[in-house]
Design brief:
The chain is mostly helical. The protein contains two helices and no strands. It has helices at about 5-40, 50-85. Helix 1 runs antiparallel to helix 2 (about 50-85).
Length: about 90
């Protein structure tokens, strides 16, 4: 396996992980922003207040997008497994 091929595999793995993680991270960011604004408006400075809404929203996004996540990951791994015979040892 050449260095270029190894770098390409690493790059595609990182891109796939970012693509799969991005919806949950964006949802957590938006919930944190909304709760932060509400905390600033109401002057409630509880540090643990954002944890439960973030957890619930991230769970909801995970359940909602699980078929998409799985289809992306399965197609990625199928591409990797299909390219294995073509790799030079």
């Amino acid at each position: 396996m050449s260095n270029a091929l190894a770098l390409d595999l690493m790059r595609s793995a990182i891109q796939m992980s970012l693509l799969v993680a991005a919806p949950m991270l964006v949802a957590a960011l938006l919930v944190g922003l909304v709760v932060g604004v509400l905390q600033a408006v109401t002057q409630i400075q509880e540090q643990t207040l954002t944890f439960i809404p973030k957890l619930l929203v991230m769970t909801f996004v995970l359940v909602l997008l699980m078929p998409w996540f799985l289809s992306r990951l399965v197609s990625y791994m199928a591409g990797i497994f299909n390219s294995l015979p073509n790799l030079a040892v």
